[in-house]
């Protein structure tokens, strides 16, 4: 099982099952995470900024590549609804533009 830490959500640590998207793993903890399109890869509201462990994530999907080419996804960002953690550790943070108003970010 791989591990995922959200640094600016009180270092929330999430265990990610093989094949499970990062978004599904976060939701399984009961934590709210922005995802306006319903986890279909049609927007960028579920994006995360990867601080370390990018090499431990699945390859980019067509949706991520499309948004990256359009300038809506930075080189250090991934969509939580599209990627999985293949192995090891990944540390991320929630970018300010997609933070939920009722969550406490550090």
From TrEMBL:
Family matches, as Pfam families: Fer2
Keyword Translocase among record annotations: no
InterPro entries (UniProt xref): 2Fe-2S_ferredoxin-like_sf, 2Fe-2S_ferredoxin-type, Adrenodoxin-like, Beta-grasp_dom_sf
Cofactor list: [2Fe-2S] cluster
Domain 2Fe-2S ferredoxin-type: from-to ranges: 1-98
Transmembrane residue ranges: none
Domain of life per record: Bacteria
SUPFAM superfamilies assigned: 2Fe-2S ferredoxin-like
Keywords recorded for this protein, A-Z: 2Fe-2S, Iron, Iron-sulfur, Metal-binding
Family: Belongs to the adrenodoxin/putidaredoxin family.
PANTHER family (alphabetical): FERREDOXIN-2, MITOCHONDRIAL, FERREDOXIN/ADRENODOXIN
Protein name: (2Fe-2S)-binding protein
Species, as recorded: Adhaeribacter terrigena
């Amino acid at each position: 099982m791989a591990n995922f830490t959200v640094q600016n959500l009180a270092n929330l640590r999430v265990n990610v099952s093989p094949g499970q998207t990062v978004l599904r793993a976060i939701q399984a903890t009961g934590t709210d995470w922005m995802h306006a399109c319903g986890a279909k890869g049609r927007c960028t509201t579920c994006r995360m900024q990867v601080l370390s462990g990018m090499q431990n994530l699945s390859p980019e999907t067509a949706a991520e590549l499309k948004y990256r080419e359009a300038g809506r996804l930075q080189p250090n960002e991934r969509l939580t609804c599209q990627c999985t953690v293949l192995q090891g550790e990944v540390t991320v943070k929630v970018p300010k533009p997609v933070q939920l108003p009722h969550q406490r970010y550090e």
